[in-house]
Amino acid sequence: MKVVSLHHIICVILIVLLRTSLCFSQTPPQMVYDVEHSDIKILKVSKDIAIMYGGIGKPERKLIERLGKDYNLKLVFIALPWKKYLSNVEVNIINEKGQKIVKVISKGPLFYAKVPSGIFTIKAIYREKVNTHTHVEITKGGQRSLYFSWNIEKTID
User: Fold this and answer.
1) In the CATH scheme, what architecture does the domain 35-151 have?
2) Which of 99, 89, 6 is nearest to 49 (CA)?
3) Which pLDDT score, from 0 to 100, does residue 152 have?
């Protein structure tokens, strides 16, 4: 009778496990987008106000849209007639008292804000052309989406 060593048994078990694990299909790794190394900016304006903007390129746009679900205001900037996204848009959010609570240049086509509930005027300025939405009601529980478009004479690169 042949005596099998414990070492031999362990080696056989490891080989079987290794071969078995290689037979299972592996799911491809998911891309994790690093906000710190992207063009997405998240800023705390005051105790009650935070903003986030970016969205240049598909991976960044997907990430900012996922992160943006917690914000109660979403702005999208578009060039017509080409329906291309715009960046470098000045955003002004003005409260009911006429106070400008946000003034920032959005470096991406998507802009999100967390603001207190209320009625606001939102002004977006692109190449000195002002586009305004007045009497915008924003609540804590939902998200208000606004689209700003400008007719641009030549294509945007």
Assistant:
1) Sandwich (2.60)
2) 99
3) 87
Task: State which amino acid sits at residue 1.
Answer: M
The amino acid occupying position 63 is L
Percent of the chain whose predicted confidence (pLDDT) is above 90: 58
Distance CA 5, CA 139 (A): 72
**Pairs from 61-69 (Cβ < 8 Å, separation ≥ 24):** 61/109, 61/110, 62/33, 63/33, 63/35, 63/38, 64/40, 64/108, 64/110, 64/112, 65/110, 67/35, 67/40, 67/42, 67/112, 68/110, 68/112, 68/143, 69/143
Residue with tokens 């939405």: 133
Calpha distance 89→93 (Å, rounded): 13
